[in-house]
Amino acid sequence: MSGGLDTTLHAPARLQIAALLARVEEAEFATIRDIVEVSDSVLSKHLAALGEEGYVRLRKAAQDGRQRTWASLTRAGRKAFAAHMAALQELVASAQAAAVAE
Amino acid sequence: MNPNEAAATLAEVDRTEMKLAQRARWPFHRHAMFGLAEGILVAGLAQPTVQAGAMIVVAMALLIVCVSEDRRRDGMFVSGWQPGATRPLTIFITLFVLAMAAASAMARDGGGAEPVGYLFGAITFVICTAASLRWEKIYRSDLNKKARP
């Protein structure tokens, strides 16, 4: 992590996954895939990376006779996402302030 | 990361939230089921013990159905305690239900069924259903905001 920016969340798709999970309690794999617009394999890799970092909790549950994967953001994930977003907003705001000052 | 990249990343997050907003639509019966669960809970507290227990079980079962139906229908579950612009309304709903529950429990005289409990339950049903509908609108509009610098 540097200046609030989190290297795990640096990949745009991971940040989008975190942004989605920050606004829901839990989401199913297919729902995340449809909203973030990535392939199954790409989503699996990003979820695994977020899970390894302790940002996302994954669980399997049977539904309509099929095993489905559900993901939720952990407390650490919510904190990292909020800090990353604040750092991004600060970066943009300081650039805008510098442009106005010139 | 430079400011342009940061701005582009924030725009992507906005886009994700807007796509979530498009999916964040719940049918009217979902809101009514939530209102009914709260109404039954409130009405039950004024009734004789056995009836009250049965009504509380029905209310809890309805809430469980609400959550499991959300998951099945939408592939996601959005908690009412979601941080953001909806939080004040969630607090209002909670305090309102607690106040109605207290009023209903106080109306209980330990004897037979208490009609005023049903009145409190009916009021709770209407207010909670309306509040749930409003909650959905606030949630969606919060997701659609474009106020980031």
From TrEMBL, chain A:
Q: What is this protein called?
A: ArsR family transcriptional regulator
Domain Winged helix DNA-binding span(s) in chain numbering:
14-92
Provide an example Pfam family for this protein.
HTH_34
The domain of life for this entry's organism is Bacteria
Listed InterPro entries = WH-like_DNA-bd_sf (IPR036388), WH_DNA-bd_dom (IPR027395), WH_DNA-bd_sf (IPR036390)
Q: What is the lineage of its organism?
A: Bacteria, Pseudomonadati, Pseudomonadota, Alphaproteobacteria, Sphingomonadales
From TrEMBL, chain B:
Q: Which named protein is this?
A: Uncharacterized protein
Q: Where is the organism placed in the taxonomic lineage, from the top?
A: Bacteria, Pseudomonadati, Pseudomonadota, Alphaproteobacteria, Sphingomonadales
Report the source organism. Sphingomonas edaphi
Which regions span the lipid bilayer? 52-68, 89-106, 118-135
Alphabetically ordered keywords of this record: Membrane, Transmembrane, Transmembrane helix
